[in-house]
Design goal:
Number of strands: 6
Strand content: 15-25%
Number of domains: 1
CATH architecture: 2-Layer Sandwich
Largest sheet: 4 strands, mixed
Shape: globular
Radius of gyration: 15 Å
Strand order of the largest sheet: 1-2-4-3
CATH class: Alpha Beta
Distance between the termini: 40 Å
Length: about 160
């Protein structure tokens, strides 16, 4: 499976903007957009859970070329906690309830805009990885925490 590419992130950003989808890049894909030097196989998106946003999301994903089944579309519309999509031009993980983060609106208020990409704050990315407590997350946390220090020094104003 090839790595998720910046061009694909642009396609997501542009299609989601056309449909009015409220979302944030989270996980390693979010950290990469903030400048974290790594790769990822898919994009992790924290999606605002609402019927209107779910409907807009389904339309945007179909525009992007994702072949959503009706059961998948229904899971997205109702905001199932986690929906993994592998039947499209690239892989996406839609997260409506990420570990370590309580409310989309709180994360939205802390977001960082990077070239038009709404990205979770690095502290939220780290909190989510720590709360998930998977082996791969525990392995990446020291590097993410080190990157956080670099990122704050670089963006101090």
């Amino acid at each position: 499976m090839p790595a998720f590419e910046y061009r694909q992130a642009e396609e997501v950003r542009d299609a989601f903007a056309r449909h009015g989808v409220r979302y944030l890049f989270i996980g390693k894909s979010g950290a990469i957009l903030l400048g974290f030097p790594d790769t990822t196989q898919d994009a992790d998106l924290f999606i605002e859970k609402s019927p209107a946003n779910g409907e807009a999301l389904v339309a945007a994903l179909r525009e992007l070329g994702f072949a959503l089944s009706e059961p998948q579309s229904d899971e997205i519309r109702r905001g199932k906690d986690f929906v993994q999509i592998k039947n499209g031009p690239f892989d996406l993980d839609l997260v409506f309830a990420p570990d370590g983060l309580e409310h989309f609106e709180d994360a939205w208020q802390r977001r960082i805009e990077v070239e038009g990409f709404p990205v979770c704050h690095i502290d939220d990315i780290i909190a989510s990885k720590a709360a998930a407590n998977r082996v791969k997350d525990r392995e990446s946390l020291p590097r993410l925490r080190s990157f956080r220090e670099y990122w704050f020094l670089k963006h101090r104003r």
